[in-house]
Amino acid sequence: MMIRLGNPMVFAKLKRMQVILLLVFVALTGSPRYLSAQSNVSYEFWPETDIWYRLNPSWRLSAFLPITKYHESKNRDMNVYLQADYAWGKTKILHYGRLFNEARAELMKAWLARGGYMHGWSLGEESGSYYEDMLFAEIHRRMPVGKKTLISHRIRPELRWLGQDPTLSFRFRYRAMVEREFNSGKFSVIPYINAEPYWDSRYAAFNRIRLIGGTTMSWGPRLALEGNITYQHDTHYDTSNLYALNIIVHLFFETRRSKSNNR
Question: Over the stretch 103-151, which tens digit does the pLDDT of each residue have?
């Protein structure tokens, strides 16, 4: 069943979904535990460009280029991610996703595995103060609820080499996410919310949690725009509470073979 954005009922559903996501996000970040520490807060802007290259319905390559800033200082960090995805398996409920499939409806696969490498370094006046090399792997389990709502779980271990004289550390991350798609023709809107705790071997503890709420929009086969608000609480940073506006431009490409397989 196609959901039409021109239908007032669809706008009402979309508005209701956004309100629910906002209330959950505010409830999580506005609890007394966090409000008591609001004097220790930073507000950041994180621009990012993500490039996706689909080889076939199962294999996909991608590169992420985020610029982040964690502290109240002049330096920003540049990170370059190179990664490969492989998706497989069927879901119990048929779920068709469009946004990350070149604006075409495609049956959602139940599992996705990802492996990659990241190199990061500091920019500006503090150039050279931060270096990082990281190897990481991810496993995603995607569970449709109805035809348009998706719950997904992601487990991500990371091997990290930090500093100019690098030392090896290990980090473990788990993310739970809920998203819902609304589409009409080539236009797609996906509001979402997720939560992600981090365990770091340097502290032998869960030292960080991120809560993110946002929306991704696509109106053609090559381009999508994503915006979200990130709240991060980290017990081992000088600025333990961070709010960031994250704007991501997604660019999509694919091989001729991939196009022919999806016609």
Answer: 455 677 899 999 999 999 888 766 667 789 999 999 999 998 877 899 9
Alpha-carbon distance 78 to 68, whole Å? 7
pLDDT, tens digit (0-9, with 9 covering 90-100), for 205-230: 999 999 999 999 988 788 999 999 99
Domain boundaries, the chain: 8-261
SS3 11: helix
pTM of the model: 0.81
Amino acid (one-letter) located at 94: L
CB 177 within 8 A of CB 192: yes
34-70, pLDDT tens digit by residue? 444 455 888 899 999 999 999 998 999 999 999 887 5
- Quick one: three-class SS letters along 189-246? EEEEEEEEEEEECCCCEEEEEEEEEEEEEECCCCEEEEEEEEEEEECCCCCCEEEEEE
Task: Provide the residue type at 108 as one letter.
Answer: M
- Helix, strand, coil shares of the chain, percent, nearest 5, are 15, 60, 30
> Which residues contact residue 176 at a Cβ distance below 8 angstroms, ignoring those fewer than 6 apart?
151, 152, 153, 154, 194, 195, 196
Q: What gap in Å lies between CA 174 and CA 161, rounded to an integer?
A: 20
CATH topology of domain 8-261: Lipocalin (2.40.128)
